[in-house]
Amino acid sequence: MEWYKLYNPKAMNSFQFIAVTGLIMSSLAHLLLHLWGKEIASFNYLYLCWGTLFVFGSIQNLRHKPEDDDHHHHHHHH
After folding, report:
1. Rounded CA gap, 42 and 40, in Å?
2. What is the pTM of this model?
3. pLDDT in tens, 60-73
4. DSSP 8-state code for residue 17
5. What residue spans define the domains of the chain?
6. Tens-binned pLDDT, residue by residue, of the chain (78 aa)
7. How far is it, in rounded angstroms, from Cα 50 to Cα 55?
């Protein structure tokens, strides 16, 4: 498993990148609202959505192996 794909931005796919960006934006908005004394419970759902998207992207990313595609092509030639 190429675990660096989970934390190295260069190795992330678009799903993971969007999820991380979304989490950062949500956290900043949450922090600002918290400073203003506004508590919004729905932020927890936002984090859940971004987290789910990140997990989905991570699974896609870890499962994708360019080498595997090459192997399939070689089998067709034989």
Report:
1. 6
2. 0.68
3. 999 987 665 555 55
4. H
5. 28-63
6. 788 888 888 898 999 999 999 999 999 999 999 899 988 778 889 999 999 999 999 999 999 876 655 555 555 556
7. 9
CB burial class (10 A; 0-12, 13-18, 19+) of residue 1? exposed
Both structure tokens of 13: 């796919």
Number of residues assigned to the chain: 78
| Amino acid present at 22 | G
Instruction: Please state the φ and ψ torsions of residue 69, each to the nearest 5 degrees.
Output: -60, -40
Please count the CA atoms within 13 angstroms of the CA of 64 that sit on its side-chain side: 10
Structure tokens at 24: 């950062």
Q: Look up residue 69 and give its two tokens.
A: 């595609």
